[in-house]
Amino acid sequence: MYMLEKEDKEARNWFNDKPPKFWSKSHFRTTTKCDMLLNNICDAFNGTKPILRAREKLILGLLEGIRIYLMKKLNQKREDLLKYQGNLCPRIRKLIEKVKEDSATSIPTWAGKFLFQVKTMYGEQFSVDLSGRTCSCRGWDLTGIPCLHAMSCIFHIRENPENFIHDCYKKTTQMRIYEPVIAPMDGPDMWEPTDLPDVNPPNYEPKKSKLNKNRRKEPDEIEASKRKAVEMKKQRREKKKKQVATSEMHDATKLSKKGKLGRCSKCLQTGHNKTTCKKSSNSPNSTTLPQTTQTTQDWYQNATSPSHPSKQINFESTYWTGHINEPSKLNVCMGL
């Protein structure tokens, strides 16, 4: 609190009328075995799809949806526990493995019996009591899982860490938690009638705004989301700059057509193309490309050549004059 007061006195004064047990882990109770500061468990439960779908229904439909969801959930947990072979829960086992690795930074000193003094490589010093399962860092006291200081002491006396974990994380305790069964119920048509008045829903007043299913965010979460949006915008801007720079480097290897005059393929003049050419192809001033023509005599020689004996044609009875520019028409006339 001294550091907070040094940074911002108004923030320090804001905590004056609030009990420390609600916002400081140093004043949390050690009987619950939970070090969570926020109520994320309820938020996670209320954010599930079955609960969100049930919220859209009336009171009876809402309660029935929650009951069915819990009935399935408890049964699924029981089936999973029966199949599980370990003694500790899977997540707790993974957490223990991580604590084992982190305990390498602690050096325990055995004071006697189950009392130890632990010094870390960062200059910190703590006292550990294995019999009382406590550590002055309060990590073991709050969660029931040995902290890295206690883990180094457990390794020093060569004991099994699972023997120092609270019973709430063991399989037997979890089986007792999920042992109760939510009994099935008959439908409304089989309920016994009563003389009590019916429970009618309250008067419905439609809201102008759209129904919001998202939870209300805390002020710090709103600021975090804004910072994240700014960072993403900055990343997109940098990515776009890189793409532009890459395209410029790619264009630098090609010869640009900027400033080059186009040439028309009809009149061979610059400044326009063939679609916008104003000069007709039959005008005397227009310049056209020469076209190759072939006379009938040339086609006759090719058709009667020895290399094509199957295509020899008798032209004696037919007199051809003029030039034929399209050989395909000549083939049609000849019957080829």
Large-scale geometry: extended
Mean pLDDT: 80
Q: Helix and strand string, N-terminal first?
A: HHHHHHEEEEHHHHEHEH
**C-alpha-based Rg, rounded:** 45 Å
Low-confidence runs of at least 5 consecutive residues: 286-294, 308-336
User: Which percent range fits the helix content?
Assistant: 40-55%
Instruction: Decide which structural class fits the backbone.
Output: alpha+beta
Number of helices: 12
Strand content: 5-15%
Largest sheet: 4 strands, antiparallel
Report how far the terminal alpha carbons are from each other.
Answer: 106 Å
Strands of the biggest beta sheet: in what spatial order?
Answer: 1-2-3-4
Q: How many strand elements?
A: 6
Describe the SSE topology.
Layout: H1 2-7, H2 9-14, H3 40-46, H4 49-55, H5 59-83, H6 90-102, E1 106-112, E2 115-120, E3 125-129, E4 134-135, H7 139-143, H8 148-156, H9 171-177, H10 219-252, E5 294-295, H11 296-303, E6 323-324, H12 327-334
Helix pairs in contact: 4-5
Overview of this protein structure:
40% of the residues lie in helices and 7% in strands. With 336 residues, it is an alpha+beta fold. Among the domains are: 1-22 and 39-83, no CATH class; 90-176, no CATH class. Strands 1-2-3-4 form a four-stranded antiparallel beta sheet. A two-stranded antiparallel ribbon has the order 5-6. Strand 3 (125-129) and strand 4 form a beta hairpin. Helix 4 (49-55) packs antiparallel against helix 5. The termini are far apart. Mean pLDDT is 80; it is low at 286-294 and 308-336.
